[in-house]
Amino acid sequence: MIPLYILGLLLRFGPQHGYQIKKLMEEQLEDFTQIKLPTVYYHLEKMENEGLITAYRDKQGARPEKTVYQITDSGGDKFKVLLMQTLDIKYRPQFEMDAAFYFSDHLDNKELSEGLRVHIGNLKKSLSIITQHRDETMQYIPNEYKTSACIIFDHHILHYQAELDWAEQSMNRMKEANHGENKSN
C-alpha cells in the first residue's frame, strides 16, 4: 500500500522531498493507514528504480540540498492499477483477540475480563479521538474532498463501534456465565 499512497500524494500535491512525503502521510493518512514511516525512503528508492518516480536534487538558498521526487507517466498508470486493486479486495479481517478466547482454557476468567475491560477502554478512547479528529478536520477539507473524507471517517468509526459492541457483549456474556456458575456452586 505504501507505493499507492506515495504515488497518490505526488499526484495530489506535486513534487515533494522525502521528509515532505513522510509529513503528508502523518497529517493526511494516519487516520486510516498503518504505515511505518521509516520504510518510506526504501519505497522511494525502489519506485525510482522501477521508473514510477524520478528524483532530482534541489537547493534553495543556504539550505542543504534535498532530493525531490516526482511521479512519472508510468507511475500515474501504476497508481490507477493499484487504486483499482483496492476496490477488489477479499475482505477478511483479523481479530487477534479471538486467540485468547480459543485458548481460554489457559487463562482464568479474571484475566479474560481484564483484557476485555482494557480493550473496551482503548476502543472508547480511539473512537473519541477519531470522532474529534473528524469534527476538527472536516471544516478544513476542501468541498471536493468532503464526501470522500466522510466515507473514510465513517468506515473507521463504524468498525471501531462494531468492535466495541462485540467487546461489551462478550463482557456481558462472561458475567452471565460466571453468575450462572456461581449459582450452581
Keywords:
185 residues; mainly alpha; 7 helices; 8% strand
Radius of gyration: 23 Å
What is the typical, i.e. mean, pLDDT? 90
**Number of DSSP E strands:** 3
The main pleated sheet reads as: 3 strands, antiparallel
The helical percent reads 55-70%
Which word captures the global form?
Answer: elongated
Low-confidence stretches: none
Describe it for me?
The chain is mostly helical. It is 68% helix and 8% strand. It contains seven helices and three strands, in the order H-E-H-H-E-E-H-H-H-H. The chain has helices at 2-13, 18-29, 40-49, 73-86, 98-102, 109-138, 143-184, and strands at 16-17, 53-58, 66-71. Strands 1-3-2 form a three-stranded antiparallel β-sheet. Helix 1 crosses helix 4 (73-86) and helix 6 runs antiparallel to helix 7. The mean pLDDT is 90.
Short overview:
This protein is mainly alpha-helical and 185 residues long. The chain has seven helices and three strands.
Please describe the topology of this protein.
Layout (H helix, E strand, L loop, with lengths): L1 H12 L2 E2 H12 L10 H10 L3 E6 L7 E6 L1 H14 L11 H5 L6 H30 L4 H42 L1
Antiparallel strand pairs: 1-3, 2-3
